[in-house]
């Protein structure tokens, strides 16, 4: 095959090696092709060798690919480039500190040193455990910060804050903050005032109130402020007022944050010292100490500088990485390559403004670094801008759709504030354009997606380009299904497994929420001091009913098999051996089991954790949902399922963008950290402890509640995620939604049709065994039912309605997204999360919850053991809401039905909940009711007796006569 010829823009980049360059490299434009040839051109000069050129990549795999391509187009071989500085920022900082960093901490007033044996800690789960260990001692040593300990939800929040500050170049020193770090914490009032004024401007030529004033109509609702907080009317102004007073901006921005800064400083500095004493550095600290070393040591800076610096994927760099690139430049030969539309890693502290505001930041950062010494050889450079416009991946139709996606509102009332003037229009080089762009929707979305894939495979209407450049029918391996969040992907894998559908999973899983981790946790508890909790899980897994489990725990008469296994585990010395035996007992194999074993052993080996500490580590993993990357294959011809983040940098002939549902993409906002840092408002807290008043209390910070409403909601990155998803497609794009499609799908130029899912059995010759990243083992023991299994589904079919799914939903009731969305809102609202109703159903739920007092228990799991004809049967479900007051208990189940036709079926469901709660609260009456969200009506339901429930179980198991 002949070598491809560079296009004009690529040639300009390859040949333009001197000076400062900003390269806009959109998806599929041959960025790597041009960058590697440019590198080869530079190092092939007689006066230049690889040690003179830094090529910074986003990932280690990208660095490996770059080296392989450079070898093909330069005089150097792979062995000669093995140690060349083609690496990530983290790897390069590690190299720098290994050679020169022994005394780097002293520049911050820290006595500890970086040694040749200092290890790199790249496992976030293990670092979280070490930080928890540090924080326990810090609390004991610093009682002066007790008020902040009382408001922190978990130490992990503080670790996240430290990582974010490090990415911004904000570092602590023994005598305060390093360089201008404190100014970042204080924030920029002028920049904040601009944002305040923008959202406080009346609309419709002054006839309609400002967005900010309207948003503050809920000010104080479900909040407890200190007495100095203004009333809602005083804050918003009187009737007829269209905007807030200008002095509100000053009042909410200016507050005494000295104690808050002192707390963060002491914890940040203390953790740096702790890490050094434990002889490890995190990725954040690698960059921190490398930056300080380069700033403070002129000799090292001169030794470490490069004649040429190129930064790939510049849109994914942090502020401190931009500054590191400047400090590592011996000349102004700096080239940054990226695409702001593909910046999707803000959760890893990437700053899209690095590329959007490149010229301004280049001037500002260089001036800051040169303020007290000549560190950066840039004197107001005028960067050369190169735009790579020719796309070699997608058809013109896909490109056009992607450019519309970057400007699509994420909510019905959101003005798009993306920098659309900076969108570089791409041209297609596809051999042919037969692109199909379509949308499907169905309440059983998972089944609809699989059915649609089957329609696509072998269908000439969805032909893709073959190796010979000619159209060919698509195969399963040509299709990728993308999701915004992991949970949908896991659900789709479950449904695919039911149909023996060929899928390959690629992405992160919440390791400690998998079945293998839960069973391991149970057995570790049995071996430790919390045996009852462990035995309860093990016995439930076997199939014992709740009353039987209670009896076994009360008498200690454990079944012989599990008791013998417990004794066997007690004879094992290592945690790894225990974990291996537990996983083997339940038949857990594959990538997830291997990763779990490795993680558990690593935590135990690299910390001072006892077995009890390890138990608590797994418990926290269950609580926080920490993820690890797992890949699972179903053979060569299988559909790939992955999140958009995982798909970045990849390409597929056909992309199915699934779960295009309200509240799923963008995902509904969850709880936020108590202490936060955000530009331009600096360091803030949303909770404050005070002993003012009759009782000590943790109050909400009213200033924070106003400030956050002046800041962007983060939808720009959601649009960029949509753009990345679409631009992975070479030929065809299919969008899929459930009952409540999102604003993206409503606004995009896509025709959405109602699907009729029918997943057909695969031909015997087709590959079907998907290697899912988890295993399911059927238990032996009591028969299990759910309340849904007792219902007559023909009622719902006749009425055109379906029973709403719970976590226990059967495949037939899976994917009814509108009902799920309403339930998710109800849960979040009841828990006090910062959520706003998006439709009338949610508004009625909010009104209901606002009027309820007492202890509200959300998504309460219940299990009712019953004996049916001498057999053990369990009925397990989840009650939407349980309200407990001193004189009664109420069970409330939400229903989105438009009619009351299914009332009798829902009575069966509520009856199960009633009998469980009636046993729990024997001292007070229990009432059950349905809350119909379609009209806000609440109906009292008289429960069935236990005898009637037994009869229903018999009828369910025997079926119709």
Can you put this structure into words, describing what you see?
The longest helix is centred in the N-terminal third of the chain and has 20 residues, at 258-277. The protein contains 37 helices and 32 strands. The chain is globular, with a radius of gyration of 30 Å. The protein is of the alpha/beta class. The chain has an 8-stranded mixed sheet. A 6-stranded parallel sheet has the order 3-2-8-9-1-10. The N and C termini lie far apart (70 Å). Helices cover 41% and strands 17% of the residues. Residues 764-782 and 798-816 have low confidence and may be disordered.
Helices and strands in order, then pairings?
Blueprint (H helix, E strand, L loop, with lengths): L7 H8 L5 E5 L5 H13 L9 E5 L2 H12 L14 E3 H12 L18 E3 L2 H18 L4 H4 L5 H13 L4 E2 L2 E2 L3 H6 L2 H11 L11 H5 L16 H5 L10 H7 L4 H20 L2 E3 H14 L1 H7 L3 E4 L7 H9 L6 E5 L14 H4 L1 H12 L14 E5 L1 E2 L4 H10 L21 E2 L8 E5 L3 H12 L7 E2 L5 E2 L6 E5 L2 H13 L4 E8 L4 H13 L3 H12 L3 H10 L4 H11 L4 H11 L5 H16 L4 H14 L2 E6 L6 E5 H4 L4 E6 L17 E4 L3 E4 L1 E4 L6 E4 L1 H6 L7 H12 L2 E9 L5 H5 L4 E3 L28 E3 L8 H6 L17 H14 L9 H11 L4 E14 L2 E15 L2 E8 L7 H18 L5 E7 L4 E5 L4 H13 L3
Parallel strand pairs: 1-9, 1-10, 2-3, 2-8, 4-7, 8-9, 11-12, 13-25, 13-26, 16-19, 16-20, 17-19, 20-25, 27-29, 30-31
Antiparallel strand pairs: 5-6, 14-15, 17-18, 21-22, 23-24, 28-29, 29-30, 31-32
């Amino acid at each position: 095959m002949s070598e491809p010829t560079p296009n004009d823009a690529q040639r300009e980049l390859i040949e333009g090696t001197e000076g400062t360059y900003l390269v806009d490299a959109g998806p599929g434009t041959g960025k790597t092709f041009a960058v590697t040839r440019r590198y080869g051109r530079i190092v092939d000069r007689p006066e230049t060798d690889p040690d003179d050129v830094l090529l910074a990549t986003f990932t280690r795999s990208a660095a490996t690919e770059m080296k392989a391509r450079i070898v093909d187009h330069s005089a150097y071989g792979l062995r000669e480039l093995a140690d060349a500085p083609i690496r990530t920022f983290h790897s390069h900082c590690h190299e720098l500190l290994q050679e020169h960093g022994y005394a780097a901490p002293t520049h911050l007033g820290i006595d500890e040193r970086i040694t040749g044996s200092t290890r790199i800690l790249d496992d976030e789960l293990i670092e979280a455990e070490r930080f928890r260990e540090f924080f326990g001692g810090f609390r004991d040593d610093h009682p002066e910060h007790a008020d902040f300990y009382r408001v922190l939800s978990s130490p992990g929040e503080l670790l996240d804050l430290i990582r974010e500050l490090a990415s911004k170049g904000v570092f602590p020193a023994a005598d305060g903050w390093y360089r201008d770090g404190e100014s970042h914490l204080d924030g920029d009032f002028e920049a904040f005032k601009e944002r305040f004024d923008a959202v406080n401007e009346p609309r419709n030529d002054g006839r309609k109130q400002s967005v900010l004033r309207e948003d503050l109509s809920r000010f104080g609702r479900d909040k407890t402020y200190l007495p100095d907080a203004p009333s809602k009317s005083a804050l918003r102004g009187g009737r007829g007022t269209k905007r807030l007073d200008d002095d509100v901006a000053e009042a909410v921005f200016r507050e005494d944050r000295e104690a808050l800064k002192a707390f963060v400083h002491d914890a940040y500095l203390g953790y740096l010292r702790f890490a050094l004493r434990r002889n490890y550095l995190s990725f954040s600290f690698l960059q921190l100490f490398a930056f300080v070393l380069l700033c403070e040591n002129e000799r090292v800076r001169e030794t470490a500088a490069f004649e040429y610096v190129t930064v790939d994927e510049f849109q994914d760099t942090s502020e401190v990485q931009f500054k590191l690139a400047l400090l590592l430049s011996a000349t102004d030969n700096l080239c940054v390559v990226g695409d702001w539309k593909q910046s999707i890693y803000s959760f890893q502290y990437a700053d899209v403004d690095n590329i959007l505001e490149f010229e301004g930041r280049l001037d500002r950062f260089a001036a800051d670094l040169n303020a007290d010494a000549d560190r950066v050889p840039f004197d107001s450079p005028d960067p050369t801008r190169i735009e790579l416009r020719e796309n070699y991946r997608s058809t013109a139709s896909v490109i056009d759709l992607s450019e519309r996606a970057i400007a699509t509102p994420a909510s019905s009332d959101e003005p798009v504030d993306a920098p659309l003037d900076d969108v570089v229009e791409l041209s297609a080089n596809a051999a042919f354009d037969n692109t199909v762009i379509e949308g499907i929707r169905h309440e059983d979305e998972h089944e609809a997606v699989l059915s649609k894939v089957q329609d696509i495979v072998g269908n000439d209407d969805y032909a893709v380009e073959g190796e010979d450049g000619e159209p060919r029918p698509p195969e399963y391996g040509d299709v990728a299904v993308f999701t915004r969040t992991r949970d949908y992907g896991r659900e789709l894998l479950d449904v695919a497994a039911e149909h023996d559908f060929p899928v390959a999973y690629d992405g992160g899983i919440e390791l400690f929420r998998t079945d293998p981790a839960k069973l391991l946790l149970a057995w570790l508890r049995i071996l430790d001091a919390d045996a009852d909790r462990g035995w309860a899980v093990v016995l439930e897994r076997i199939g014992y009913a709740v009353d039987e489990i209670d009896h076994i725990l009360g008498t200690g008469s454990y079944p012989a098999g599990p008791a013998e296994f417990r004794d066997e585990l007690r004879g094992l010395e290592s945690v790894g051996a225990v974990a291996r035996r537990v996983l083997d007992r339940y038949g857990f194999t594959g990538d997830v089991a291997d990763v779990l074993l490795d993680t558990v052993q690593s935590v135990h080996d690299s910390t001072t954790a006892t077995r009890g500490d390890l138990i608590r580590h797994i418990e926290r993993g269950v609580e926080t949902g920490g993820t690890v990357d797992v890949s699972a294959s179903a053979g060569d011809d299988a559909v790939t399922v992955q999140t958009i983040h995982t798909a970045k940098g990849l390409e597929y002939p056909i992309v199915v963008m699934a779960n295009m549902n309200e509240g799923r993409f963008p995902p509904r906002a969850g709880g936020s950290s108590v202490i936060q840092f955000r530009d331009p408002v600096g360091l803030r807290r949303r909770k404050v402890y005070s002993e003012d008043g009759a009782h000590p209390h943790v109050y909400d910070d009213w200033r924070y509640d106003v400030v956050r409403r002046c800041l962007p909601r983060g939808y720009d990155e959601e649009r960029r995620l949509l753009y990345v998803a679409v631009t992975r497609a070479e030929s065809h794009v299919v969008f899929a939604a459930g009952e409540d499609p999102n604003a993206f799908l409503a606004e995009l130029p896509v025709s959405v049709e109602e699907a009729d899912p029918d997943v057909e059995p695969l031909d015997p010759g087709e590959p079907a065994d998907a290697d899912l990243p988890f295993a399911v083992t059927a238990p032996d023991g009591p028969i299990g039912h759910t309340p849904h299994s007792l219902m007559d589904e023909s009622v719902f079919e006749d009425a055109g309605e379906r029973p709403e799914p719970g976590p226990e939903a059967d495949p037939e009731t899976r994917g009814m997204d509108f009902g799920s969305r309403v339930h998710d809102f109800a849960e979040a609202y009841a828990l006090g999360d910062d959520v706003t109703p998006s439709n009338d159903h949610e508004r009625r739920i909010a009104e209901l919850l606002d009027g309820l007092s007492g202890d509200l228990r959300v998504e309460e799991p219940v299990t009712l053991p019953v004996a049916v004809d001498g057999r053990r049967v369990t009925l397990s479900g989840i009650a939407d809401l349980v309200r407990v007051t001193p004189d009664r208990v109420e069970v409330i189940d939400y229903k989105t039905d438009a009619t009351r036709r299914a009332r009798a079926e829902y009575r069966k469901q509520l009856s199960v909940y009633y009998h469980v709660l009636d046993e729990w609260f024997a001292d007070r009456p229990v009432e059950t009711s349905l809350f119909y969200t379609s009209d806000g009506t609440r109906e009292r339901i008289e429960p069935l007796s236990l005898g009637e429930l037994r009869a229903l179980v018999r009828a369910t198991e025997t079926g119709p006569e």
